[in-house]
Design goal:
about 450 residues; 25 strands; five-stranded parallel beta sheet; alpha/beta; FAD/NAD(P)-binding domain; homodimer
Chain lengths: ~450, ~450
């Protein structure tokens, strides 16, 4: 059987490896348009923070290992441009200009996502970067290492924007963060967003909210980011306003798309064509809480999707449980974590949501080193269900959120969650874990 | 209504406070035989580590606050010795020698536990301590502060024994740990127990396994702990071989006991007498995994039990979900966490258990500061259910365990757990959380 995978990152290489483990005699071909496969995209901000560290440290497994040890026909520099569903072939061109065609019995589209570029002018100027694939990181790092970069403007304050803010401050570079909205972290409660803002500003970064960018210009010495309220000089600009799924040639081939133009897949990761699967940042998923289609591009979801698709391709029926959008990021000394729905998402999904913000501590009463932990929690008045939770603190937020994530997998009520038997010892938390305190407070409103 | 509570620690004061919040006009009387209420027993090892820190720092809420702010009739120095079920009274004597009798409509027994004293001689010698109530800690700390204590022998290697080992090493005191069994941590996999042993020994404590204590003797200058294999000199001895429930007068009154002589309660925390409830270390509970009665004395369980009993006393019907035995302790730089059944418990409960030990990392590939994390996980071959998990590492174990604890609340299978949407970012873990890697490995055996 010929199993062709388009895309050699998280979902694609997970699928290719798993397919070969499942069925050693399967012909597995991976077509990757770039020359980097299997790298830790999420690690780029931390790598870029350290000038002397090679960006190649982020490669988890060398291409050669996939070829020689795992027997995967891994072809880099191969850009697929067309899928023919009737003929069951994929066509494209190598970066050497050679055309290629591969027949498939089963195909996996794992083409990932591409940074969204805003429609103002100047995003193509030298010194303007986005950050998604390893080559983005390589070029940005070269720019930073080869020039006396003193000031950077970051457009957007999502995970990447904030992580790169920390990374650049580590290098002693001045940072201006710009976004049109009025909250630094728009999806959380004001108390939590303000605590993040305080942390970022205390580390010397400048935040410009309610400030839309109009254009980026070259100003001779460097770049100028022209905003509604002001103009900001920069030696480099990072555009980090989100990504979109790479689904163009899937759509052109006639495959069904869904939320945000992600490739529509069922719980087996199968697209609208029974021989074609899709996984990773290009594919949609079912949300655990709403049961509806969603698109949440995250690394673990891509890995899980790759495995599930590969199992189904190999005739081992597997369904992928939905996604909860569990995520965490570090911003200087703070950990911020989330799972499930935001208030806006809960309302949009037809729930009757109520929320609570509580402030607890990371360690027990009288234990030294305790710091505040904020918990924001949302429940549904109608069903009593837990809908989402968010946590912020200098310690103890990143892993705690997983208890709420598991609860979301089982449609647990806030009342049941408030009774869960969580761990306690003075160095690690209060007797009532901050999540339990939040659940108990939320219960009073439900 | 007269609500009488026997015992003024975690379960008792939680219940008294909640009852007054539920029904402000209720007469709530708490009878506590000691003079300390509402203190953090678990914080004692950390307090004792610092000579100049008053032990009273561990008092969470002063007795006076319960009296004046909450209107609770809190009577310390009142030891109950007898319950008369027919008359609905409790009798006893104050530490001033005055006899007392209180009538009750509803009674809560929250008498906690008492350290088990071994049957060899010498445990009553000056300088031999156990550690359960605040007064134990106060006396031990006075002993340590007032004498040139250079060497301590700790008999037992449970949570208290290990935490006190760290505490005493912090004070520069030599420590010998003695136990009859062959593993330092008997309930976990050998790999994890050995890693704890390495950590303890690397901090200069000496561990004596397979070594039963025969007696403690006074040797003029200090104490001598005479073991099967050797004799150990000491300026102080800590006996920490476990606790037993304080259920003697409950039994004498005719209340039903169960596992380990704990007071038998139903899911409403009601004993075999419909007017008497019990919660905390003296009461039994239902195990979440087996559904059977169990006795696991832990702080959160006591607090949850106090609330549940108070609600039922106030006519608000509440059931307490079972306990999973989720616990964590710190031993020097290591975090060790557990939830659910051990292998021995799983076999005894009639499951067909299989287990796996994996070694993962606390942070992502290429992220600085990553340390090993061990996960031990147990599943049931028949039902596919997750039965228990244990984790050990220098970071990232204490809170991660809660994800598995929540899974146990819902009888989740290992397969479903392996698909849960847990958090990921390079500073906090690998893409596949160590718990997910363990679940995926365990699945192969199931």
């Amino acid at each position: 059987m010929d199993f062709v995978v388009i895309g050699g990152d998280a979902a694609g290489m997970s699928a290719a490896s798993r397919a070969k483990r499942n069925m050693a005699d399967m012909n597995v071909t991976v077509l990757e348009r770039n020359h980097d496969v299997s790298f830790s995209a999420c690690g780029m901000p931390y790598n870029i923070a350290v000038p002397e560290k090679p960006i190649e440290d982020l490669v988890v497994r060398q291409a050669e290992v996939f070829r020689s040890k795992q027997g995967i026909n891994l072809l880099t520099g191969h850009e697929v441009t067309k899928i023919d569903l009737a003929e069951k072939t994929v066509c494209g061109t190598t970066d050497q200009g050679t055309a290629f065609t591969f027949p498939y019995d089963k195909l996996l589209i794992a083409t990932g996502g591409t940074p969204v570029m805003p429609d103002f002018t100047g995003t193509d100027l030298p010194g303007v970067f986005s950050l998604k694939i390893l080559d983005n990181g390589r070029k940005m790092k070269a720019w930073l290492n080869e020039r006396p970069v003193k000031k950077v403007v970051i457009i957007g304050t999502g995970y990447i924007g904030l992580e790169m803010c920390e990374s650049l401050r580590e290098r002693g570079i001045e940072v201006d963060l710009v976004k049109p909205g009025k909250a630094l972290v728009s999806w959380t409660a004001p108390e939590l967003s303000e605590a993040v803002q305080q942390e970022v500003e205390s580390r010397g970064a400048r935040i410009h909210l309610c400030n839309g960018v109009q254009k980026i210009e070259s100003n001779g010495a460097g770049l100028s980011v022209v905003c509604q309220e002001n103009s900001l000089d920069a030696d480099m600009v990072l555009v980090a306003i989100g990504i979109r799924p790479n689904s163009d040639f899937a759509a052109a081939a006639g495959l069904e798309l869904s939320v945000k133009n992600a490739i529509s897949v069922d719980r087996h990761l199968c697209t609208s064509d029974p021989n074609i699967y899709s996984a990773g940042d290009c594919a949609d998923a079912y949300h655990l809480v709403t049961g509806e289609k969603t698109w949440i591009p995250l690394a673990l979801v891509a890995n899980r999707g790759g495995w599930t698709a590969a199992d189904n391709v190999c005739g081992i029926p597997k369904e992928m449980d939905g996604v909860a959008g569990t995520a965490v990021f570090k911003i200087f000394d703070l950990e911020m974590a989330r799972t499930g729905l935001t208030m806006a998402e809960a309302k949009a999904a037809g729930f009757d949501p109520v929320d609570v913000v509580i402030k607890s501590r990371s360690r027990a009463h009288a234990h030294p080193g305790s710091v505040p932990i904020h918990v924001y929690m949302i429940g549904d008045k109608k069903s009593g269900r837990l809908l989402g939770a968010q946590m912020l603190g200098k310690e103890g937020a990143a892993h705690r959120i997983n208890a709420a994530a598991v609860a979301l997998h089982t449609q647990m009520t806030v009342e049941t969650f408030s009774q869960t038997d969580l761990s306690y010892a003075p160095p690690f938390g209060p007797v009532w874990d901050p999540l339990l305190t939040a659940a108990n407070q939320l219960l009073k409103k439900m």
